[in-house]
Amino acid sequence: MTILETAAPERAESAAAGRTAVPHRRDEVAARRDLRSVPLDDAFNVLGAVAAGLAIATLLFGWLTPMTGFVGWLIISFIAFLGVYGVLSALRADRLTVSERIMTALFYSAGALLLGALVFVLGFTVVRGVPALIHPNFFVETMRLAGPLEPLSVGGIAHAIVGTLIQISIALVITIPLGITTAVFLNEVGGRFARFVRTISDAMTALPSIVAGLFIYAAVVTLVTHQRSGFAAALAISVMMLPIIIRASDVVLRLVPNNLREASYALGTTRWRTVWNVVLPTSRSGLVTAVILGTARGIGETSPVLLTSGVTAEMNVNPFTGPMISLPLQVFDFVKSPEPNMIARGFGTAAVLIILVLLLFVIARVIGGRGAGVLSDRQRRRASQRSRDDLLRIERRRGSARVTPPLAASHQETS
User: Which of 17, 28, 271, 308 has the CA that lies 20 to 30 A from 358?
Assistant: First the structure.
């Protein structure tokens, strides 16, 4: 008993010594850092570093060293800008702030470089294609009566625009249900076969486009149709689009929280009603993005279309008979000519293809741009009207319930 009584205080003291102590909270609170706006002194540091970087590169390339070249001048200017910006930031900030500002400058520079490259590609294509784009006949006529030496006021690419829309429409009809259904199978069913299908779809994303064209040419054109057609080209485009849509949709469906599925199952619904009413509406915007990626991949393919659709200068709206040209193939057919007018038509066709892709992106964003649970103005008005109707119906029922008991009592007295 004596041993236990003496050991108990020791255990209590050791437990008290090992207990986590809550630090004393001071009344002084540090100022909150603003991570969005740019301080005035930091803006002056950026401007001064840019000017110093340009000056240092100019001195090195024009006076002190024999280095030449515009690209090298830009690289040296950027390196000098980072060095001067780090020195200026270190004058009034600690090491952590300096490293943060340098990394921010690197990220902004990477974004500006990417945006500049995109603008340069688009601008160069449009500028080279302006001589053809300014003629209205370029959009409504075909090349049936226009030769290589004809002026730009004769001929157009209406047949290529129609061919592209028909081929990509057939490809979307094939790939959208098949790709999204496959992605649902991979996520909702699973199993060994699902792992095999996911491996094959991932491997097909790196499939060369010429291989898809050769496959459709050997399996469809040679054995079935015995002629090149727009439908064969659409099948080749579908082979290229399908793994992109499957892979992107698979990633999107994985992001749907499992508690939404569990809540649906708890209400007694089946798996497929859960997929149709919960999983797919939740991932609608992501699935639209997956379709956009697949469409962007298929609409710009040239190699499979060259092997399966053929080249024509006339309008053909029947995808099952005769050759049907598309915009990428028309660009290839134009730019291989040495004539300046044909090259201008090629750049104009490329500009039309870019505009068409941007238009499809905008339409897809309008259709599926809102996330799950985000209502439009019309849907919010309808929901408000339904709420008001429900409130009026409830109030009418309450009023009738209050009037009914006195009426029942009067009937009982009469009887």
Answer: 308
* Whole-angstrom distance, CA of residue 140 vs CA of residue 155: 8
How confident is residue 15, by pLDDT bands cut at 50, 70 and 90? Answer: very low
Structure tokens at 189: 């069913």
Quick check: 283 and 253 in contact, CB under 8 A?
yes
Q: In what helix (H) or strand (E) does residue 364 lie, and over which residues does it extend?
A: helix 340-368
Q: What is the DSSP secondary-structure string of 31-84? A: PPP-SSSPPHHHHHHHHHHHHHHHHHHHHIIIIIS----HHHHHHHHHHHHHHH
Helix axes 340-368, 284-299, angle to 10 degrees: 170
CA atoms of 46 and 6, how far apart (whole Å): 70
Distance CA 9, CA 25 (A): 31
Six-digit token pair at 99? 């490293």
Handedness of CA 132, 338, 122, 210 (dihedral sign): positive
Quickly count helices (H) and strands (E) in the chain: 17, 0
Q: Is the pLDDT of residue 41 over 90?
A: no
Q: How many CB atoms lie within 10 A of CB 30?
A: 5
- The predicted model scores a pTM of 0.71
Instruction: List, for residues 61-118, the tens digit of each pLDDT value.
Output: 878 888 888 888 888 999 999 999 988 888 888 888 888 888 988 999 999 999 999 8
Q: Is the pLDDT of residue 143 over 60?
A: yes
Q: What is the pLDDT of residue 370?
A: 58
